[in-house]
Design a protein that fits this description.
Layout: E1 2-8, E2 13-19, E3 25-29, H1 36-46, E4 49-55, H2 60-63, H3 66-72, E5 77-80, H4 96-102, E6 115-117, E7 122-125, E8 128-134, E9 143-149, E10 152-158, E11 161-162, E12 165-166, H5 176-186, E13 193-196, E14 202-203, H6 204-210
Parallel strand pairs: 3-4, 4-5, 5-6, 10-13
Antiparallel strand pairs: 1-2, 2-3, 7-8, 8-9, 9-10, 11-12, 13-14
Length: 214
């Protein structure tokens, strides 16, 4: 399995492409604002064709690139069911300060269709198996996405767990108690590489040993 990444300019979101060994098909993880040019360059260089987009959660910085990405690659979008409403009016799902900042970016927003994903649900796409693990706390519908290629596994943690930190819980839909439970769930996962929504990659064992929130 190969994991490639590019960064969206707005809030420095990691946008990933994942392929199974020997495959020219891939899946995309998250779709930050203005990520399409970087993705197009990356996929062209690697000879990859997307087959689906998975969103770790519905915050605007992770979804606002969908319009341009879907204009280039017409593929299905998957999002945690509890975050579906965030696709409808992205700027209104955060606090007023963020809403004002986002207003120019969503002036022409048309909410894309999305396939709901729920806890424990699996998809076989592009030679990969993607399993959703519910991890609310940052948002109601945040998901840890376990991606397997045979015996090899990686986890996309979105804004639940970062290298050395966790996602904030003070925005609308955030819940400290739910986050605490999600961290307990994370601690039960196998020791594999993790790829967060922001910042560098890490491993489950590294975070359990060094992240002050565990």
């Amino acid at each position: 399995m190969d994991v490639f990444s590019t960064n969206a300019e707005f809030l420095d979101v990691n946008c990933y492409a994942v392929r199974a060994d020997g495959s020219s098909d891939c899946i995309l993880i998250d779709s930050g604002y203005d990520c399409a040019p970087g993705l197009e360059k990356l996929l062209s260089e690697e000879g990859l064709e997307p087959r689906a987009i998975f969103l770790t959660h519905g915050h605007p910085d992770h979804i606002l690139g969908l319009t341009n990405v879907l204009a280039r690659w017409n593929v299905p979008v998957h999002l945690g069911a509890a975050d579906r409403y965030r696709l409808e009016t992205p700027a209104t799902t955060l606090n007023p300060q963020f809403a004002a900042m986002l207003a120019p970016l969503v002036a022409d927003w048309n909410a894309p269709a999305a396939i709901d994903i729920n806890d424990g649900q699996s998809f076989d796409i592009a030679g990969l198996t993607i399993t959703a693990v519910s991890a609310p706390g940052h948002t109601e519908g945040s998901m840890l996405l376990r991606v397997k290629d045979g015996d090899e596994e990686v986890i996309f943690t979105g804004d639940v767990v970062f290298a050395g930190a966790i996602g904030r819980v003070d925005l609308p839909g955030g819940d400290p108690q739910a986050m605490a439970e999600s961290l307990r769930t994370f601690a039960t996962l196998p020791d594999v590489p993790i790829y967060p929504g922001h910042g560098p990659a890490s491993r489950v064992s590294t975070e359990l040993a060094t992240n002050p929130f565990f």
